[in-house]
Write a structure and sequence with these properties.
This protein is of the alpha/beta class. It is 49% helix and 12% strand. The protein folds into 2 domains: 3-171, 3-Layer(aba) Sandwich (Rossmann fold); 175-279, Orthogonal Bundle (6-phosphogluconate dehydrogenase C-terminal fold), CATH 1.10.3660.10.
């Protein structure tokens, strides 16, 4: 590859750029971001070689690869503009947390050289200053090729992720959103809701936030994640997130029933079964 453009030079965009460098990429790494501060920080930290807040400037960059790393609901608008300024040979991929319909819409705009991707790696932190070169090592990276995806583009994207230490797995865009709606988006929704519960149940004379122990803090660490990013994810994967929330409410209702009815044996059995299942994934 000659040169790479990272769109959205935040935590994930910065991590991708750093990982490329760490693994010996010798070409130029450019950044595009709407926020001039992101570009300035990324340049100062040496994460990108050059950056711009003016998308048309990327036409001079001779790009081989574009990595979309901004919030998911910005991808379509950016792709429409970007298409005017990159060669038809340039491969476009992304790190967005939602795929589904978005993959087909991006294919409509960019054609077969677009490859949907989602590294299952991250933290609750935002911004290029927190980016990590080793972020993807030993982590799953889901690619969501369709019938239309160009085989060479898919091969290149797969090769890059494997070079950066990722373990590539393919899924359909629909399956991706079902799986991650439940295993990732639901826990974030629950963490936000749990903190909200403490806000609502605090009384004028009792500030519940004075008392949380390690359990509450561990459980709700992800509620410190970026609100705009999570708003976009919840709305972009609306149907699966709603299905997951409904499943969770049903499980809570079941727990409620067992506690209300003081069903000691059933309650122990419920908790034991859940504990066993949870321990299997450590
Ligand atoms: P971030 O807030 O750290 O960075 C996002 C960057 O995008 C910021 O610099 C922001 O200025 C820029 N941006 C916003 N709107 C833009 C636009 N219209 N055009 C250009 N730049 C724009 O967020 P992040 O954590 O790096 O997440 C980025 C993407 O990665 C999201 O799509 C998210 O779904 C995905 N993702 C995040 C994680 C995670 O744990 N953080 C994990 C996997 C995937």
């Amino acid at each position: 590859m000659e040169s790479v453009l990272v769109v959205g030079v935040g935590f994930m965009g910065g991590s991708f750029a750093k990982a490329l460098r760490k693994h010996g990429f010798k070409g130029k790494i450019y950044g595009y971001d709407i926020n001039p501060e992101s570009i300035a920080k990324a340049k100062t930290l040496g994460v990108i070689d050059e950056g711009t807040t003016n998308l048309p400037e990327v036409k001079d960059f001779n790009l081989s690869l574009v990595m979309l790393s901004s919030p998911v609901r910005t991808f379509e608008g950016i792709a429409r503009e970007l298409k005017k300024y990159i060669s038809s040979e340039a491969v476009v991929t992304d790190q967005g947390s939602v795929k589904g319909e978005l993959v087909y819409r991006l294919e409509e705009i960019l054609g077969s050289r677009y490859v949907g991707g989602h590294p299952i790696a991250g933290t609750e932190r935002s911004g290029v200053e927190h980016s990590i070169a080793e972020l993807y090592e030993g982590k799953k990276v889901i690619l969501t090729p369709t019938e239309r995806t160009d085989v060479k583009a898919l091969g290149l994207v797969r090769e890059i992720w494997e070079e950066l230490g990722g373990e590539v797995e393919y899924m359909t865009p629909e399956l991706h959103d079902y799986v991650f709606g439940i295993v990732s988006h639901l826990p974030h929704a629950v963490a936000f809701a749990l903190v909200d519960t403490l806000i609502k149940l605090s009384k004028p004379d009792v500030d519940l936030f004075k008392y949380p122990g390690g359990g509450f803090k561990d459980f709700t660490r992800i509620a410190k994640s970026d609100p705009v990013m999570w708003r976009d994810i919840f709305l972009a994967n609306k149907e699966n997130v709603l299905l997951a929330i409904e499943g969770f409410i049903n499980s809570l209702r079941e727990l409620e029933r067992l506690i209300r009815g003081e069903k000691e044996e059933e309650l122990t059995e419920f908790l034991r079964e859940v504990k066993t299942k949870r321990m299997e994934i450590d």
